Amino acid sequence: MANDMMVKELEQVVVRFSGDSGDGMQLAGNIFSTVSATVGNDISTFPDYPADIRAPQGSLTGVSGFQVHIGAEKVYTPGDKCDVLVAMNAAALKTQYKFAKSTACIIIDTDAFQKSDLEKAAFKTDNPIEEMGIKQDVIAAPISKMVKDCLADTGMDNKSMLKCRNMFAVGLVCWLFNRDLKIAEDFIREKFAKKPEIAGANIKVIHAGYDYGHNTHASVAHTYKIESKTTVPGRYMDITGNKATAYGFIAAAEKAGLKLFLGSYPITPATDVLHELSKHKSLGVMTVQCEDEISGCATSIGAAFGALAVTSTSGPGVCLKSEAMNLAVITELPLVVLDVQRGGPSTGLPTKSEQTDLLQALFGRNGESPMPVIAASSPTSCFDAAYMASKIALEHMTPVVLLTDGFVANGSGAWKLPKLADYPAITPPYVTSEMKDNYTPYKRNPETGVRYWAIPGQEGYMHILGGLEKDSNTGAISTDPENHDLMCHLRAEKVAKIPVPDVEVQGCADDADLLIVGFGGTYGHLYSAMEEMNKAGKKVALAHFTYLNPLPKNTETVLKKYKKVVVAEQNLGQFAGYLRMKIDNFTPYQFNEVKGQPFVVAELVAAFNKLIDN
């Protein structure tokens, strides 16, 4: 009997859902992730979907995937390969099998492996399992037929019934890992709150998938459970990087006592920030969806005269915003530019992830145009990164670039809801009463170099800001060469003086034979590689950067302490080149990939071991 099946306890497991881009794999993955996070497991997710708006059904280019890594303790990556692969059609099996471990359990919908499906997926025989040499356990179930049988009495049409196939797969996976369906039911009811009949159908199907596994043993010898071991008490939620970024901006505005304004033009993969912030008008959030990128930035600059102003985009949009971003530089107004990086150049790989905008963020504008740059390291760290970017912008009267990427933005993790009281105060440099009737816009704090902020409409503080260079004393338009030279230096020195935390060295900090250096969204993979190598007896450390401009004061000391240093990044060497520019005689090794996919930990370990052994 199913009740007599052995239940094996696991420390961690990786599940990958895959199917047509219309099969609801992202929703299936989100539900299973939420269930796992809610019971206290740590999670790391990786949505991997095609750039096609809607690829032909059953085609190899139209496969959408969602991978989630679940752990009893902290997990840092979505996993190199999966323990369970759900393939909802032949094309999904063909393209996604490479992500399965040799010991993986594979779940397929046999109804989506008909002759026409196999032809679309470029199979040459009518036995894809044998053709691909698959030796793993395969749960081959007629999922489509069972879903239609389950919903036969609902009055739904055939197309609507088949849209529920993903829930059958979720139910089956929940059975495999002994998950309580109550959490999944609550998720579905909230998701389809305005369509209760759709919610009811999906809940019915998710139970059918669970019952199928329970009643048939589903071709496996065991079910599994992952017990949480290191949960810190508190309220948790499964949160994506984009949502965490939005919440970070809201928190910063609340802390500063200001309204939040977002001017944005929709662009993959940043649009969800606009969607999320548009839901929170009750919190003083204002959002404007503009007709193009530069107007999105320009409206935010207008708001920056008296609010926390944000504009969101991706790499191509940064190109188009650059003129307006420079207006924020010369006017010295507080603006956060969120760049959710994606594969480029040009339209490139809109749904894939890279770190190829670093030099654009640092230098991609005309003139001497210094901007602080911060990079988030994980989906859950996006909250802190957005908060700190806002704090720097408001306290130092400067535009700030916040870098995330498609992997961080669309991925998710188990996030402990923070207390706003625990976060540092945000204190903008407002004008003082002593300055009334004697205020000029570039009057600066002598220690920080930050100009004082007069909100338009304040009596006695009339001033002019604009894109033409201004006199450092009077604020009047000036073309004097000595004044321009002075203003360029003042703007650069103001950014250079911004205090940022020292970069932390993790692992064998005292005596490492190799220091791994990275920034942004590669943190989890680089940390996992370091941890794996240290467990194998190697001495490896990691210095991962969040603050990129200005760099932490201990940067040079850290990087010159170790015999071998490797800079690993998802571009062709931008951070390594930047560090060489900033630090004399620094000649690191480099590990560079530009594949639109996250690093693979096993490949990192192999490459880093070669560096140590040579």
End-to-end C-alpha gap = 56 Å
List the strand order in the largest sheet.
11-10-12-13-15-14-20
Quick check: average pLDDT?
A: 94
Number of strands: 22
Shape: globular
* Total number of helices: 21
Q: What would you report as the Rg, rounded to the nearest angstrom? A: 26 Å
Largest sheet: 7 strands, mixed
Task: Name the helicity range.
Answer: 25-40%
Q: What this model shows, in words?
A:
The structure is a single chain. The chain has 614 residues and is an alpha/beta fold. It contains 21 helices and 22 strands. A 7-stranded mixed β-sheet has the order 11-10-12-13-15-14-20, with helices on both faces. The chain has a 6-stranded mixed β-sheet with strand order 3-4-2-5-6-7, with helices on both faces. Strand 10 (260-264), helix 11 and strand 11 (285-289) form a beta-alpha-beta unit. Helix 1 packs across helix 8 and helix 5 packs across helix 9. The radius of gyration is 26 Å and the shape is globular. 50% of the residues are buried. The mean pLDDT is 94.
